[in-house]
Amino acid sequence: MIDLHSHILPGIDDGAKHMTESVEMAREAVQQGITRIVATPHHMNGKYVNVKEDILPLVNELNDRLKKENISLEVLPGQECRIYGEILEDYEQGEILTLNNNQKYLFIELPSNSVPRYTEQLLFDIQVKGIVPIIVHPERNAELLESPDKLYQLVKKGACTQVTAASVVGAFGKKIKNFSHDIIQANLTHFIASDAHNIRNRTFKMDEAFQTISKEFGQDVEYLFIENAELLIEGQNIIKEVPERIKKKKFLGIF
Ligand code: FE
Prior knowledge:
Elements: E1 2-6, H1 19-31, E2 36-39, E3 42-43, H2 52-68, E4 74-77, E5 80-82, H3 87-92, E6 105-109, H4 119-128, E7 132-136, H5 142-146, H6 148-156, E8 160-164, H7 165-168, H8 174-185, E9 191-193, H9 206-217, H10 219-233
Parallel strand pairs: 1-2, 2-4, 3-5, 5-6, 6-7, 7-8, 8-9
Helix pairs in contact: 9-10
The structure holds fe (iii) ion.
């Protein structure tokens, strides 16, 4: 299994603090059945700046260490880029790193409470460059939770999304769990990934999430997510189902 989203690189964001923690995370990943993991450190989120040339050597360093430790996990390069107006200019400058460095898929993180006004235009401009923007954890964005139609519009216009495994199993609470299930049900997501930061409170939950997905939505849906992650890594087109609107549920919790 491939995990597309992790903060496993040592000492560059709020993920693994040092190499020892990176190795601990790698061991846990292997336990979960993960064979390849994309390292996606935060970039431009107000706290961390991690450009492409900082990330690539650290990925090599971690892979060397894992080999020495006999841990069969391959780390691939990536980045979790917070949305900002000059992303494409900085991409041209070589600062932005696509997933597995294949110039095809880019992780875009929205602020946690809002969807900036320019989002739709910027996601369009990214696609014009031949890159597919992937909105990470839409289920944890307060504005999308309030107005799921905004997510539908973005996906309809070609954006992909990635839901966090921990959200699916309820680790971020019931509201986010339910929203993540609604998103899966309405074909508004294309990838499930861990966004693991450590092995304590923000761990992988990948096998648990896939068990839940298989049970709730069927094995076909589980396989689609697993296959999409592979296609992404190979730089190929992924499988997309027709996006649907999330129906507003009324009078929930009345009983
Ligand atoms: Fe993340």
